[in-house]
Structure formats: structure tokens, C-alpha cells
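Dear colleague,

Following up on Tuesday's group meeting, I ran the structure prediction for the two-component complex that the binding team flagged. I've pasted the input sequences exactly as they went in, so you can double-check that nothing got truncated or mislabelled along the way. The C-alpha cells for the whole assembly follow below. Feel free to forward this to whoever is handling the docking comparison.

Inputs:
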Amino acid sequence: MPVNCVVCVKQVPDTSNISGQVMKPDGTVNRAKLPTVFNPDDLVALELALRVKDLYGGKVTVITMGPPPAAEVLRQALWMGADEVALISDRRFAGADTLATSYALAMAIKNKCNADIVFCGRQAIDGDTAQVGPQLAEKLDIPQVTYTEEIEWVGNGTMVARRKIDDGFERVRAKLPVLVTVYGDAATPRPFNAKLIMEKKRARSQFELERLSEDNPFYYYYNDVDALEKKGLLIKTWSIEDIAADEEKCGLKGSPTQVFKVENVVLTSPDRKRYEPTKGDIERLIGELIADHIFG
Amino acid sequence: MERVKGVWVFAEQENGHLHDVGLELLSKGRKLAANLNAPLSAVLLGCNVGHLVPKLYAFGADTVFLADSERLEHYLTLPYATTIIRLVREHEPEVVLFGATSIGRDLAPRVASNTRSGLTADCTDLQITDVTHRGKLHHNLLLQIRPAFGGNIVATIISPESKTQMATVREGVMRMEKPDAARTGKTIEVRPVLSEKDLAVELLERFKAKPKVNLKAADIIVSGGFGVGKKDNFKLLEELAAVLGGEVAGSRAAVDAGFTERERQVGQTGVTVRPRLYIACGISGAIQHRAGMSESKKIIAINKDPKAPIFDIAHYGIVGDVTEVIPRLIAAYRELSK
């Protein structure tokens, strides 16, 4: 039985590289100023989806919600073996919190995809909330299996999966359709496939084609849209209308959580004592700690 | 039936044992409820767990919602979520708090999504206050405070238009107050109403080892960061911990680099600890890490970079290479503790 998988991925700022200068006054992040990466857990989610396809057949569709540059992670998804990709992008999605994000993803999946298993990474490194997966499952009104390490078996309208719990694991059987969130240590994502890179390096989103036409007035991008679509190289773009979402539930307007303020932390330092890394100084330190009964 | 609003805490239990984080949240919830001038409730789900109710009163609950059913014996997302969603819809509490455990992080978003409640993960502080936001005054909002984005940034999140404001908090972040065994309260029994759909996931097998580490209980913690350099160097930390009778821990960077296990991660997305002595080796001291250890009684920082922020909160600072300093610490301790 072929299994249709939809994988939700996110392009994230490389959080190892963030300073105060990239925060806007409203407390949201100025993503334009940051280097971006494919969210690591989402790569593993895509890997598990591709393994399901390798075993059972079916289609892997990768979707992301984000600004136009997020097309880059979709291209990478194609290079790993995704069959179809789509960019959910619209200015009115801007400022979405996890709830508004899960709503938009849910509308896209309901109206545009046919999913037996929806895959999400456990969490994204820019927020670490791990909320979008379960929130999306609730919006889709389907069961969820979080912290998934392995999809062991799919058949008869069910799936058996192993999930990580604190200090152990659980094996569960879930009815399809189901949403899984994938634990980042679950598998090693496959590298980009050289043949697929050659085939799909010209994959472009509508935004990217529009940009080309702005730069070159003789370039008529609709020709290319048709041509690319025929070759499976068009990164489809979905607006609010395309996914039949209610604007009031999208973006900042649809987000119950709001950033009230952002502060730089002022550290209140205790009485500090400095020691040199010398034998004498270190013995002095240990002596003091022993005298203070710090070691019990 | 009269609605019970105010502050609710999900009292997580497993095999009839209450998880500490629920009791910590009741301790914090007590203060938030006083600020709101509203009652504090615990929400307890399980099978044959009625004996836990007095303990929830003792930790501050005025009301306990008790859903006791065979269907709720083991945690499964949908039966638990459906039961709590019904309660939240019926009573519309102002605040619901969950422990940011693997169960709480599975459950809370589901409940928040259904009830369209604002939810903030891994808060390090919670306060109640009046807030003027975008020109509008809101009374008694829950400030959900959490470090964000790498550097030295703390974000305060609010959910001004939510009927119910939700947050998750990691274990150990809030202080557990002393219980008062004389306290009592009211139990409201809840019958879970589950449909076929709620039983879509079936538990086949469950393996749970005894926890390998209990960082929260350790008096002395030797913790390493990315600056330790390589996994091999972590053996030095293990040796120091063994000599001092402590536990080894790591920063997120060290865990991500594979130097130590995820169970040993200290910080906002790991464990929060308050040991007698915390020795930070090669840890730069990003706010997410400090959130998990800054209340240690004494902090020793060892780092090559004299400008590392960890020195700002350390009581004792040693600017130097971890691989040189640790052997000297071990030698000095062996020599002086004879």
C-alpha cells in the first residue's frame, strides 16, 4: 500500500550566531540579517518520510511556511528525494506564533495535500517550543505521536512507531492519518543526491521567477512557469487564498501570544574572586572551599 | 455548576507518583492565584490516583479536578487532551500551567490549539500584572518570561486576548515550597467522556529504565561546555566529579557536540539545578545556560576567554585551559582533603 507523506519543514536562523542587533523593536527577529539553515530536526523528519516511501511507495510532499527565501530549503528537499514541494508564503502570514502557524499548515494540508502521515521535526532551533506539531495535529483533528524515533511498520490503515520517552521508549500503534514529530537523533539525514541536484538545480519558485523578470524587462516569466511546471521544477507558492485560510486567523492577527518586551539582561555579579591557573592559586581556592564546607 | 476560574496546574503523575514539577508549579501558582485574588486548582488524571489528592491540597490547591478512570491509567495524548479540553472550555480558567516534561510538551499544545489559548514554552518566570500593550490596558495579565534567541535576551510574552493563558515550565525552575498537611480543599470528580476517535493510538510496549542521573539532587556538579574541546576531555570532568562526589553535566553546545548525554543537559531546555557547587568548565555562559544554574550556591568558572559571560555570575573565576586547570584542582583537593 503506497503511503502519502507530507513533511512540514522550516528555514531557521542559525541560532548559534545571534546578537541583539537582529531583534526588531517589536521583539520579533529580523531574519533578513541572519544566515539561515534547514532546521535540523526537520531534515530527520524528511529522512523518515523518505524511508517510508522507499519501503512502501507513495509520494513525499514537503511544505514550508516562510518568506520567499525559504524556497532554498525546498530545493534541498528535492535534492534529497522529495517528490513535490510547496512554499506557503504571503505577507499576511508574517508575525505568526505557533498557533497561527499550525492553522496555516493545517489549511494547506487539508486543502492541498493528501496525507496518510504528516511529519514534523520535534522542534525548531529558533524557538525550541515543540508546539507546532501537536497544535497542527489538533487542527487537523488527527492523532499524534511525538518524539518518534522510528516508523516500524505501516499497513491496514495503521502505523506502528517507536517514540522516545524520558529514560526509555514506547511502541504505539496509531490509526492513519496521523501526525508524527521526529526526534532529531532518530536518524542521519541522507546527503543530497548528485543526480537529483543535476536534475533539479533549476527548480524555482514563482517569487524567484518574478525577481528575474524584474531584473530583465524582456524576460516573460509566465513562459518559464509553464515550462518549469512541466518538468516538475516549479516550487509552487500558496497564498492565503490558495489554501482557503481565514485571514483573521493568520499572521500576527491570528496569534494569541505577543511579544510584550525584550530586554538585554544585566548581570548582577556576586563578589568575584579571580585565580590564576597556577598550582598555588588553585590550592588556595580549594582550601577556601574546604573551609567553607562547600564539599560537605 | 459554578465555574472554577483562577489558576490551574496540571498535576502530572506516573504510576501513582506525582511528578515534582506539578508541585513546584502549585507553589508558584499559589502566588499567582493570590495576585489574581482567585483560587488555585490542580488537575489530576489517572487510574486509582485519589490518594494523591491530599498532597495536592498540602501544596496549595484549593480545588482538585480528579479524573480517575482505567482509560487514563497510562498517558495517551487524546484521552488526556480531550478530558482537559472539556474542563477548560467549561470553566475558562485565567491561567493553566503544565510541566515542560515530555508529557506536558505533548499535551499542552494540543489543549492550547483546541481552545485557541496563547501558550509559551519553557518559561523561566511567571508574573501577574496590569499591562498596557498597543495603547490598550489589560488587567492582571500573565507575563510569560523566557530567554530567547541565543544572546543575552529575555522576552516577555503576553496573551492579551486569550480567555486562558497557558505556559509550560521545566522541572526545577520554580521552587517547591514546604507543604502544609493541615490544608484541605474540594475535589471535583470528572468523568472522562471519550469517543472512538480518542482511542486512535494504542500503547503496545513501554520500556522505562531507572533514571541514570539525578542532577537535581546532586550537591556538586562539574559541567562542561563546547570549550572543553573534545569528548575525550570530558573524562577529566568525570574524574573531577568522582573525586568530589558529584555529577557530570553539560551545556547544550556540549550535548549537541556529542560530548555528553542529553539527560545531563543543564539550562533552559534541560535541567535546572541549584547545587552547593557548580564548576563550569569551558562554558561561555549564554543566558539559556545561566537560566539553569545561576542559583547555584557557589559557582566556579574555568574558561580561556576572560570576557566569557560566565565570569559575570561566577564567584570564583579561573582564566585558563580546562585540560590544565582540572588536573590541578584534582591534585589540590586530594592533597588538602587528606
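The longest strand of chain B covers residues 136-147.

Cheers,
M.
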